[in-house]
Design brief:
10-stranded mixed sheet, 14% helix, 251 residues, 3 helices
Length: 251
């Protein structure tokens, strides 16, 4: 091969770029680092922040909650790249909050215990006390009369329901075992919330095991069983989370 051939290729490349303009270069560079889906993805098991977790073939993101004390945890959020089972971390916080009662095996949790269930759960919907941010999940803007049903006698147990629709005893005080959570009362914490599918479809639902386990914005202390991070981190999660993506809670 002539020594001048590589130089000739370089000259041709420059000429092509000059003809096509900067738009062609920009298009090549704009390929997303975190595609919403990819034919290259495969189901796999990996370790993220020291936690072993299984990833479904179509799963885009992984949220890892790694308990560090009774009511604190490291929370990290990972999103897949184009590779078979490669993920990049978008954030890691060492000041995530969990339940004031610590963690417990999901099958042993009891309603009102203030514990965060251990295990891996899907996330398929979101809600918030405000307009939707950039989000892939179905999003419900909280309105007056919205409750998260904790009434064990209701067919709507562990779901969002407005009192005008009936079907649960919304009037029960918070001191009662079958009370429901009035969502507008938590303007800051529930500004951005993702429902963790603990004790609800598509997993099994058991009465008195507990309701309303969410990933939401931090308040001033421990949660009643949810996982909490900052508002900015919640916006990052919502901007990448696909319906069916999983969260793993471990200790």
């Amino acid at each position: 091969m002539s020594r001048s051939f590589p130089r000739m290729l370089a000259i041709v490349a420059v000429a092509v770029c000059a003809l096509l303009g900067p738009a062609a270069v920009a298009t090549a560079e704009a390929a997303p680092q975190h595609p919403r889906s990819s034919a290259r993805w495969r189901a796999c098991t990996t370790h993220l922040d020291g936690v072993r977790t299984w990833i479904a073939r179509t799963q885009r993101s992984v949220t890892i909650v790694n308990q560090t004390s009774r009511s604190h945890a490291r929370v990290s959020f990972w999103v897949r790249t184009h590779s078979r089972c490669s993920l990049s971390r978008l954030f890691l916080t060492r000041s995530g909050r969990i339940g004031y009662g610590g963690t417990v095996a999901a099958t042993k949790r009891r309603q009102g215990s203030g514990t965060t269930p251990l295990g891996t759960f899907t996330m398929t919907e979101a809600f918030g006390n405000g307009p939707a941010p950039k989000v892939w999940l179905p999003y419900h803007r909280v309105r007056t009369g919205d409750y998260w049903v904790g009434d064990n006698a209701s067919r709507y147990y562990n779901s969002l329901r407005n009192k005008k629709s009936g079907g649960f005893r919304y009037w029960l005080p918070s001191s009662r075992a079958n009370s429901s959570e009035y969502l507008p009362s938590y303007g800051r914490q529930y500004r951005y919330s993702v429902v963790i599918n603990f004790n609800r479809a598509p997993q099994s639902r058991v009465r008195y095991r507990g309701t309303g386990i969410f990933l939401h914005v931090k308040g001033r202390g421990a949660t009643a069983g949810c996982v909490a991070v900052t508002a900015a981190q919640m916006r990052t999660v919502l901007a990448h989370l696909k319906p069916g993506d999983r969260i793993t809670i471990a200790r």
